[in-house]
Amino acid sequence: MLDNRPQLPPEIARRRTFAIISHPDAGKTTLTEKFLLFGGAIQMAGQVRAKGEARRTRSDFMQMEKDRGISVSASAMSFDFDTYRFNLVDTPGHSDFSEDTYRTLTAVDAAIMVIDGAKGVESQTQKLFEVCRLRDLPILTFCNKMDRESRDTFEIIDEIQENLAIDVTPASWPIGQGRDFLGCYDILHDRLELMDRADRNKVGESVKINGLDDPKLAEHIPADMLAQLREELEMARELLPAFDRASVLNGSMTPIWFGSAINSFGVRELMAGMAEFGPEPQPLNTDKREVGPEEGKVTGFVFKVQANMDPKHRDRVAFVRLASGHFHRGMKLTHVRSGKPMSITNPVLFLASDRELTEEAWAGDIMGIPNHGQLRIGDTLTEGEALKFTGIPSFAPELLQSVRPGDPMKAKHLEKALMQFAEEGAAKVFKPMIGSGFIVGVVGALQFEVLASRIELEYGLPVRFEGSQFTSARWISGEKAEVEKVVNTNKGHIATDHDGDLVYLTRLQWDIDRIQRDHEGVKLTATKEMMV
To answer: How many CB atoms neighbour CB 490 within 10 A?
Structure first.
């Protein structure tokens, strides 16, 4: 992000790869839709609440997301906006799917945080923000739903500054709110943006003005609101920090735009902000060195695996973030974990739920590689160099349940289905040493429902989840002899995960303390880096 970085090739420099994060219901999926609409990727935004087929939002493709209207798996979309190529990764806002979101944030260079104008900073926003903070991701903020009753603008900005400990600088300023919301004053470009309430898919008009004293303002804004706008902006200039691109890029300042995604208002300004002030593809860390996007050789890592995107073909698509180089279809890349070459013959780019075969991709792009289970989360693909990208987390599940097939003869089928979900990162699957059956661990309770419905839909297997005596899991590592001792004396607690790594299943914190007291050479950890 510093100026002494090498100049990027124009194709890479025009890429902006970012995620949208928010608390559920702040309007993230609607905002994603409008991005696609203005990027020309779709003709009409599918209203999440409209009737019939139009209600099927383009970026939600799993049956359950369509039924419930929530996004449960992060999907990636690429589209052009002006001279830029946007790679947008939509993340689930629901906290039960936070692990998927954390991993997605390792694959982007910036994030857009969506906040509900009436509710301000909510718990899930705060959690996701912390993850962005760990990686110093630049963050742009969009305060949504200004056309409904919302809080005072200064109050919202204060809350963000206090709760998230980040400087906030207004990029636009709302004029009125709720029913009286007229639009915004674009501070960065001295423009008046007016909202068109008549047509939700139409962009409001822009009026170019010269500062706040321009008499043209009075033609569009009632006198009392204009007086309030001038007063608030004067206060904002004195009280709030001025926009500074370097501070935005190092993650210490966030510009905030106000608008209403459902009315297509403020969205274009936010997109222009991402194009103008967002980061180019950034260097990424590996176990050996930093990989810069300008390097000639292709490298990339898998941050998500989605099974059965097309239920008719048992396909699995690995989402790969390209970290460097210029990829061509048909290229042979080394799969670092196995050391084997892989010919990538049918890479796809996603335009919402449509996939297109792509002939080429550049550093910063997110590409889908259909495969039959060779690629897992955390895998690295390179042109020969043995690198592993670091920092892709796998968390210990907080909820464990045992799972049984409705038909006992189908145990083998169930094992296959569970292994697929484990590789996709949708759940942890543990095989206990003693007894039959599997124990499934997830981060949030809603995931059990999603798993049960997907196993039934995609494999035709009704299953039931039952309570388990265990409450948590820890990965075991350490000196071989000590680990064997632990295993032999605690067989009832030991299981293996889908990679075959040893796991200690616990009922109480006391179990963990006891092992660590009795066996000094053994480590129990709650996370396992997705590295093999």
So the answer is: 18
Of 145, 94, 143, the closest CA to residue 115 belongs to: 143
Q: How many CB atoms lie within 10 A of CB 406?
A: 11
How many residues does this entry show for the chain?
532
> Torsions phi, psi of 470, nearest 5?
-95, 150
Q: Residue 38 is encoded by which pair of tokens? A: 């203005």
Residue 81: strand, helix, or coil: strand
Give the HSE-up count for residue 280: Cα atoms under 13 Å, Cβ half-sphere.
Answer: 20
List, in order, residues 6 or more apart from 115 with CB less than 8 Å away: 22, 26, 121, 125, 141, 142, 143, 144, 156, 160
Report the distance separating Cα 141 and Cα 195, nearest Å.
19
Q: Does 95 score more than 90 pLDDT?
A: no
Q: Is beta strand 428-432 parallel, antiparallel or unpaired with respect to 494-496?
A: antiparallel
Reference 103, options 531, 532, 530; nearest CA is: 530
Phi, psi for residue 132 in degrees, rounded to 5: -60, -40
Tokens standing for residue 76: 């990636």
Work out the number of other CB atoms within 10 angstroms of the CB of residue 258: 31
Distance CA 503, CA 468 (A): 16
As a whole number of angstroms, the distance between CA 450 and CA 456 comes to: 10
| 222-235: average pLDDT | 86
Q: Three-state SS string across 371-396, please?
A: ECCCCCCCCEEECCCCCCECCCCCEC
CA angle 94/97/99 to nearest 5° reads: 135
At residue 51 the predicted structure's pLDDT band, cuts being 50, 70 and 90, is very low
Q: Can you read off the two tokens belonging to residue 151?
A: 């809080």
Report yes or no: 358 and 348 within 8 Å, Cβ to Cβ.
yes
Which letter, b or e, does each residue of 268-303 get, where b requires 16 or more Cβ atoms within 10 Å of its Cβ?
A: bbbbbbbbebbbbbbbbebeeeebbbbbeebbbbbb
Residue 87: count other Cβ atoms within 10 Å of its Cβ.
Answer: 26
Q: Report residue 246 CA to chain centroid gap.
A: 24
Q: How many CB atoms lie within 10 A of CB 50?
A: 12
Whose structure tokens read 């796809």? 348
Read off the tokens for 129. 């923000």
Residue 326 CA to its chain's centroid (Å): 24
- What is the rounded average pLDDT for all residues in the chain? 79
CB 102 within 8 A of CB 131: yes
Please provide residue 277's backbone torsions phi and psi, each rounded to the nearest 5 degrees: -110, -10
Distance of CA 265 to the CA centre of its chain: 23
Q: What is the mean pLDDT of residues 390-417?
A: 79
| Number of alpha carbons in the 13 Å side-chain half-sphere of residue 526 | 7
Whether the CB-CB separation of 505 and 473 falls below 8 Å is answered with: yes
Give the pLDDT confidence score for residue 203 in this predicted structure: 59
Sign, CA torsion 372/378/383/384: negative
pLDDT at residue 359, as a whole number: 85
